[in-house]
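REVIEWER CHECKLIST
Item 1: Sequence provided? yes
Item 2: Single chain? yes
Item 3: Sequence as submitted:
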Amino acid sequence: HAQADAMLDFYRDVLNLPQDPARWKIPGIYGSWINLPNGTQLHILGSEGPSRYAKGPGKDPVSNHIALAVEDVLAAEQELIARGIEYFTLDKVASPSLKQLFLRDPAGNLVELHQSSARRAGVEKPEQDPARAGNE
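Item 4: Structure as written out by the authors:
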């Protein structure tokens, strides 16, 4: 977890970006979330090798990525299909109602799209949801 801790220190302490204190707890997944403007988050995650959520080579949502909230995740998925953009999905992992789409930008960076109405960690108090508890 040394790399994930070093990344957290860099973004939080060097760049002075706020850490989300109410990251959803995902069993077996170590990490932190950094809050960025407009509902965007940087998900700093750590795992040794592919996670149990990996959908194949280069398709591991436990890789570090930018997470963007969209108004309608199903419409976003249809847009990806219409444009022929390769993506993979993860359902009900971070939250029972959360559908996540993962794709790569032209530079190869992993990007997550999820429904903006799905609860964003840090919006409610952590004690309201026992599934959220910071680093694993």
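Item 5: Key structural point noted by reviewer: Residues 2-14 form the longest helix (13 residues).
Item 6: Recommendation: ____
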